[in-house]
Each structure stands twice: as structure tokens, then as C-alpha cells.
Write a structure and sequence with these properties.
It comes from Methanoculleus taiwanensis. This is UDP-N-acetylglucosamine 2-epimerase. With 359 residues, the chain is an alpha/beta fold. The protein folds into two domains: 185 residues, Rossmann fold; 150 residues, 3-Layer(aba) Sandwich (Rossmann fold). The strands form two sheets. It has a seven-stranded parallel beta sheet, sandwiched between helices. The protein has a six-stranded parallel beta sheet with strand order 10-9-8-11-12-13, sandwiched between helices. Helix 13 links the parallel strand 11 and strand 12. Bound molecules: uridine-diphosphate-N-acetylglucosamine and uridine-5'-diphosphate. Uridine-diphosphate-N-acetylglucosamine binds next to helix 1, helix 5 and helix 11. The site of uridine-diphosphate-N-acetylglucosamine has 20 residues, from helix 1, helix 5 and helix 11.
């Protein structure tokens, strides 16, 4: 039996190839949704878009402080894990759901598999960095997306026998859904956009949007891009950011703010954008895989492969630097090599887990 724990938008998306593979092979598995994300556009829409079965359990933990959220997830997950007694528990990424799920399983002496293991920003102010390090060190199976991620793990003394380089399941998710997206939605028509003639923005990192000065700087940067390039700037707003923008009470000159999109629509928007501006982890990877230049509004990244291949640059959060970075990135050639694998990560992970069951 495989236990799959997920709870936020990126985990639903990046776990979807693993769930699909469990279904295809008719394996005994269950999905435990923690409910860390719960708004329709952060949760349900992805089950619908990706045609995923209903989770078997939902803890409905909702929002809260880090400790509150982590504790609720651990308590809720413990009784379900005890009841189901899975042979291996899978978590994906670096959220509170991940660290809490892994810790609950590990304390019950269950084997933990960490998908997207070994990412490091080397910035411990990010809550996600702590979650990644702890989860990696609790895990029995470390599914590293790249060789660089594997090296990070070995440098921290993790046994190389536990590490398997699989590529990132985000590639599987893109390959499995790009055609479906083309057939099912036409978001460019809906928003009256022309291919390669708009910018797409996302921002939700706690260290960016919970800091009023930084958020203002980012907004001014976006406004200056809009003025200089005279192209639409589309900004689907994460709920954390929506709250902060409301609190600031400032308008955004010429920026098209929207609700978050479903995966099929967002994939299309990303694939056709002139350039993507983001502080998201997954969006840096997706832009790289889709051949779209990316400007990351951060000072570090746990996705250095995107910098190495030239798909991504770090522009920080100062408005002048954002504009300068976009000027140089928008005219880059996009013939880089995708460093995240060939879209079979989900299959490899399930294969390892199926073998673990019989041991
Ligand atoms: C979380 C993850 C982050 C990940 C992001 C993906 C942690 C520490 N952070 O950040 O790593 O990149 O998810 O999007 O686990 N809210 C809603 N509806 C929802 C979810 C959240 O309105 O469905 C609002 C609430 O006001 C909440 C705030 O967003 O307080 C933040 O949500 P939370 O899950 O704590 O963190 P994220 O910023 O979403
Ligand atoms: N995404 C989406 N709709 C949006 C914005 C993002 O479907 O409006 C998807 C995006 O394609 C990617 C994932 O959400 O797969 C990234 O999630 P997020 O940025 O919230 O988290 P992170 O990757 O930073 O942890």
C-alpha cells in the first residue's frame, strides 16, 4: 500500500503523475489531502482539470501559523497512517504539509519517500528551506529531480543508496496536459491576448509579499514594465498576495489582476507568454520546460539548473532591477535544454515504491 500525502496547489499538480501511475497499474494506494489549500481555485480546480480521483481523506486543516498548521497535520495524519499502515508514504516538495506528513510517518517507523528531494536555496529565512532539509533527512527514498539536487544530498551526508535521480514530475504533468489544455481551453481568446505579446506574473513568497516595502517595489516594477513594453501584464493573484494587496490599499496602474487560474489555463498562458515574472518554484521550472524566458523576483533560487541553462535570471525585488532584468531576458533566445528530465519521473517513483512494498 502506498500512502500519498498532499495539501497545496503545487503538490496536487506535481503529485498528479504519480497518482495517475498508481491508477494505471491498479495499485493499492490512498491519497490524504491535508486541506492546507482549500479555496476552489487553489484546490478543487486541479482535481477537475487533472481528472484525479477524490482524495480518500481530507484533514481540512486550513490556514494558520506555521506551528499550528504543522501540528494539526501531524495529529490528523497519525491516526490515518496507523489505520492504513502503508508500506511507504510519499510527500512532494517543501510545504508545511510535506514536513508534517513526513514527520508523522517517520515517527511511526514508516518509510518515507520525498519527491523533489535535494533542492537548496541556502537561505534559511525561507520557511520552505527548513521544510526541505528536515524532510530529506527523515526520508528513506530521496527522489532527486537532477544531478545537482543529488549532490546537495550527498554533501549533507545522506547515504547515496537512498537517492534516485528521476527528473521532476512537473515535466510529466506538462507533457500529460499540454495537448488537453489546447483542446479544452482558449484562455488567450478569453483574455484578448496575442501570443508572445504579454507578460505573465505570479508572486506569493512570504518573504516578498508579507513585506510591504518589497511588495510595493514589485508592483512598481510591474508598472514600469507595462509602460516600457506597452504590452498587457497578466497577474493571477495568490490568496496570500490578494490579502496583502488589499491591506496596502494601492491600485496597480495597467496591471490585469485576475483570480488564480486552473492548471490547463495557466499552462497555456505560460506557454504563450513573452516572459514570465515570478517568485514561484514551480513556475521557474515550467517556464524552462516550455521554452519561455523567466525573470525570478528573488535573490536566490533552489532551481539553479534554470540559471545554468539560461532560461531564468534572478532580478531581485527592486523595481529598477526588475525592469532592467526583463529588458535583457525578454530578448534571449530560448533554445536551452530542459534539465528536468523526460517526463517519466512519476513512473520511476511508482516503480521504486512498488518494489518497496514487496521488501
Ligand atoms: C504555501 C507553502 C509554499 C507554497 C505555496 C504554494 C508553506 C510554508 N508554504 O504557501 O511553500 O509555495 O503554498 O501556493 O507551506 N489562503 C486562502 N485559500 C487557500 C489557501 C490559502 O485564502 O486555499 C490564504 C489564507 O489567508 C492563508 C494564506 O493564503 O493564510 C497563506 O496560505 P498558506 O497555506 O499558509 O501559505 P501559502 O502562502 O499558500
Ligand atoms: N499555477 C496555476 N494557476 C495559477 C498560478 C500557478 O495553476 O494561477 C500552477 C503553476 O502552473 C505551477 C504551480 O501552480 O504548477 C505553482 O504553484 P505555486 O507558485 O503556488 O507554488 P510553488 O511552486 O512556488 O511552491
Amino acid at each position: 500500500m502506498i500512502g500519498i500525502i498532499l495539501g497545496t496547489r503545487p503538490e496536487i499538480i506535481k503529485m498528479s503523475p504519480v497518482i495517475r501511475e498508481c491508477e494505471r497499474r491498479n495499485l493499492d494506494y490512498f491519497v490524504l489531502h491535508t486541506g492546507q489549500h482549500y479555496s476552489h481555485e487553489m484546490d478543487r480546480v486541479f482535481f477537475e482539470d487533472l481528472d484525479l480521483p477524490e482524495p480518500h481523506y481530507n484533514l481540512d486543516v486550513g490556514s494558520g501559523s506555521h506551528a499550528e498548521q504543522t501540528a494539526k497535520i501531524m495529529t490528523g495524519a497519525e491516526s490515518i497512517l496507523l489505520k492504513e499502515a502503508p508500506d511507504v508514504v510519499l510527500v512532494q516538495g517543501d510545504t508545511n504539509t510535506v514536513v508534517a506528513g513526513a514527520l508523522a510517518a517517520s515517527k511511526l517507523h514508516m518509510r518515507v519517500g520525498h519527491i523533489e528531494a535535494g533542492l537548496r536555496s541556502f537561505n534559511r529565512w525561507m520557511p520552505e528551506e527548513i521544510n526541505r532539509i528536515l524532510t530529506d533527512h527523515m526520508s528513506d527514498y530521496l527522489f532527486a529531480p537532477t544531478e545537482k539536487a543529488r549532490e546537495n544530498l550527498l554533501r549533507e551526508g545522506i547515504d547515496e543508496k537512498k537517492v534516485c535521480v528521476t527528473g521532476n514530475t512537473v515535466v510529466d504533468a506538462i507533457y500529460q496536459n499540454l495537448d488537453i489544455s489546447r483542446k479544452k481551453v482558449n484562455v488567450l481568446r478569453d483574455l484578448e491576448l496575442k501570443p508572445k505579446e504579454y507578460f505573465l506574473v505570479t508572486a506569493h513568497r512570504q518573504e516578498n509579499v508579507d513585506n510591504r516595502a518589497r511588495l510595493k517595489d514589485i508592483i512598481h516594477g510591474l508598472e514600469s514594465i507595462r509602460k516600457e513594453f506597452s504590452m498587457p501584464v497578466i497577474f493571477p493573484v495568490h490568496p496570500r498576495t490578494a490579502k496583502r494587496i488589499d491591506e496596502l490599499g494601492i491600485g496597480m496602474d495597467g496591471i490585469q489582476l485576475t483570480k488564480p487560474f486552473g492548471f490547463l489555463e495557466f499552462l497555456q498562458l505560460e506557454a504563450q507568454a513573452r516572459l514570465v515574472l515570478t517568485d514561484s518554484g514551480g513556475v521557474q521550472e515550467e517556464a524552462c520546460v516550455l521554452g519561455v524566458p523567466c525573470a525570478t523576483m528573488r535573490y536566490d533560487t533552489e532551481r539553479p539548473e534554470t540559471l545554468d541553462v539560461g532560461s531564468n535570471i534572478l532580478v531581485g525585488t527592486e523595481s529598477a532591477k526588475i525592469l532592467e532584468g526583463v529588458r535583457s531576458a525578454a530578448c534571449r533566445s530560448n533554445h536551452w535544454k530542459n534539465p528536468y528530465g523526460d517526463g517519466i519521473a512519476g513512473k520511476m517513483i511508482v516503480l521504486v515504491c512498488a518494489a518497496a512494498r514487496s521488501n
